[in-house]
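Sequence in, structure out.
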Amino acid sequence: MIRAAVFFVIFYILAYFLGSWADVLSAKIRSERSFVFTIAFGGCIEMLAGMLVCLLPLPVKTAAAASAALVLILAVSGFIVSRRILQKKEKTVLKFPGYADAALTAAAIALLIFEIFAVMTFRTEITEAIKPVRTATFVFDSGRTMAGDPMMVFIGMLSSVFGCHPLEFIYSAAAPVFIVLYNLCYIAAIDPVLSGREKTVAFIAAELLTLRGFQSAAASAATLLLCPAGTWVYIIHGICPVASALLIRYVNNLPETAEEEAIVPDDDPEEEWDMKKHRIVNARNLAIALAVLAAVLVGAVAVLNNKINKLYDVTVSLERDMSGACAVFEYSGSGGKTDGYLLKTSDGKITFIGGGGAENANSLKAFLEGYSSTVDTWYVYSEEDDDAGAMRELTSSGAIKADRVYVIDRKEITGL
């Protein structure tokens, strides 16, 4: 819990400073500043920066340092730029809600707390929901980044920094941070459209739909309850609401006429900054920023493509070596069904899997003697006679010698 609290505080402090770029965009489209939109925008940028760095083939410690450096550079530069663009501080007027609004607000907060608690205590046996964690576990165990799910590489890097397994990190430290961020993204999208009690009701509806899993089974990877830190969750619950809020803000603040567009407020000429000559957010600088971003993405894709090609070459070589080093033969028992497999490696070692019941003893003996009278390793599915009867009959009588015998608990693996 201490790690979770530390991560929670650090994440949102950095998100606030990174959100200064949201203030820059708000000033560009003549939209009002919003503390919630600042945090939501900054949090999404913070996660995106970490994911981009994790695409590079770097050791975990190097990737963590590079992510921290990139986030700090973006945060400091955004804070400086926003201070120069914003001409005056806005005064926040506190409004105390009535009883009905207070009740709705309390209900929204209660749902948010329940959502966090449900995710932190929820454990799923659905393979698809925890499959991406393999990538994070690899990063955590090996200390190296790899080509894979960018979000889970980012989680694996954070887990290595905080010294806990990715699963523990996802369901404890990351859950409250990310879920609050995603709900802030919802508020950022709702805020420009609705006001007052309608906004709270819409937010409660979004939370209820999220808990219900409105994405359906076809998109279970984007359901917070199953995979709160997945890539699709980040896109659907984070990027999409923030992008929608930005688009709504831009559309709502478009001038209605050409004359309105030409009007420039002149409240304080001495402090007014010449936006036309010195503004940082203009077409040229945006083009440069997009070009740099494109170069980074192209580089990331090139690195990823190179790693995939190397992985493909290794896979082809491994398949070729396996084909030349190991031969597999199928054994059919007395009932005509497949009751076992024999693996013979290039050095002559024999591995046999299965065998069936005691009624297969004679036919299995004849089958094995065609390759060797000694089995180096014998695997049986269980200790029951239906699975290990033939093995017991042959090894106890001395007809076949088995150096090592292993029992595979099929029920434990398949639940059947």
